[in-house]
Write a structure and sequence with these properties.
Blueprint lengths: L2 E5 L4 H14 L8 H9 L3 E7 L5 E12 L2 E11 L8 H15 L4 E3 L7 H9 L17
Parallel strand pairs: 4-5
Antiparallel strand pairs: 1-2, 2-3, 3-4
């Protein structure tokens, strides 16, 4: 059985799990340090959810960011990653279900996320959970250098 909990403290297990999971999410992203995780967990808006099975190791994680804007409370899901050995076993679904429940409990009117079209299983999951593809453009700005 998959269990999802919010990480509220940085542990060695969490740092090691993210060192293993983040490269599976993005080859170009740096693994967060313990200090960076402390900063994130202390920010208030960021909620790091981790999934375990009955044997205990972290199998996946995601970040839910909940924030207030003039039109209400909104939420955004980022950095969803499930260990390659645990894919297809309900870990992603459990993480997303927990995030949606948390977002609703915090008053979010909507929850947004993006997913590359090549991530076919993830996109099927999002549709099954009730996410609707929006007609919008996503833009990204990065500082030069």
């Amino acid at each position: 059985m998959i269990h999802v909990e919010e990480s509220t403290v940085v542990t060695t297990e969490l740092v090691e799990a993210l060192a293993h999971l983040i490269p599976q999410l993005s080859a170009s992203s740096a693994v967060p340090t313990a200090a960076e995780l402390e900063e994130m967990l202390g920010a208030g808006a960021s909620h790091l959810l981790v999934a375990h099975d009955d044997s205990g190791p972290i199998l996946g994680c995601m970040t839910l960011v909940v924030f207030r804007i003039p039109t209400g409370v909104r939420a955004w899901i980022e950095d969803v990653v499930v260990d390659s050995s645990a894919r297809g076993k309900g870990v992603g679904e459990a993480l997303n279900a927990a995030a949606l429940e948390l977002a609703a409990g915090l008053g979010a009117r909507t929850v947004d996320l993006t997913s590359r079209p090549s991530r076919e299983a993830a996109n099927r999951l999002y549709r099954r959970l009730g996410f609707v593809e929006r007609e919008t453009n996503v833009y990204r700005w990065s500082p030069k250098g």
